[in-house]
Design goal:
Length: about 190
């Protein structure tokens, strides 16, 4: 009985694998951020040579600067923030990087019973789309965001809701196309 529950393609196996991978990815990112940030358990070697979190932040800042320049905005950036001349600054904290979104998306795609080629293609394209939308968010915030007193609008929560809807729709389409493909092969 237990063997059948965890056999390849079973829903329970998918759920357990998905949750395990999501928690592993999510908390590894938090752990890695902690040991590469100066403080209690800081690792200078990891911070200087393997810091993928800072590399992602730098990529997002540089990309945002480039897109802003296409629209005529002058900006400069450092390790954590971008300053747009005449507009203000945008600080990219850990939660702005999309690592939680990417952890969720990656865990789902890897856990779902699908061919490796399909998984890799969808994973790469999905993560690229998440970060392109993230850059678009930063461009819009840097160029047009004005904090108004009395108006409570959490752009981070709004972005996450929009991205989770997009991820949900894309995963649904991907799963349905996989089902159609396997049903087509079964008929042949």
């Amino acid at each position: 009985m237990a063997k059948r529950v965890f056999e390849k393609g079973s829903p329970l196996r998918f759920v357990v694998t998905f949750l395990t991978l999501f928690l592993l990815f999510y908390y590894f990112n938090i752990f890695f951020f902690g040991i590469t940030s100066p403080g209690n358990h800081y690792s200078d070697f990891l911070a200087r040579h393997l810091n993928y979190i800072q590399a992602l932040r730098t990529f997002l800042l540089a990309s945002t600067k480039t897109v802003l320049s296409w629209f005529g905005f002058t900006s400069i950036y450092n390790n954590t923030e971008i300053l747009v001349m005449g507009k203000g600054r945008l600080i990219l904290i850990y939660s702005c990087l999309g690592l939680g979104l990417m952890s969720f998306f990656s865990a789902f795609v890897i856990a779902y019973p699908q061919k490796l080629k399909s998984k890799l293609l969808f994973l790469i394209c999905g993560i690229a789309v998440i970060q392109v939308l993230n850059i678009l968010r930063f461009v819009l915030l840097a160029a047009f965001w004005k904090q108004r007193q009395g108006l409570i609008l959490d752009h981070h929560a709004i972005f996450n809701i929009i991205i989770y809807v997009i991820i949900g729709l894309s995963l649904y389409i991907w799963v349905k196309s996989a089902e159609r493909t396997s049903a087509g092969h079964a008929e042949n």
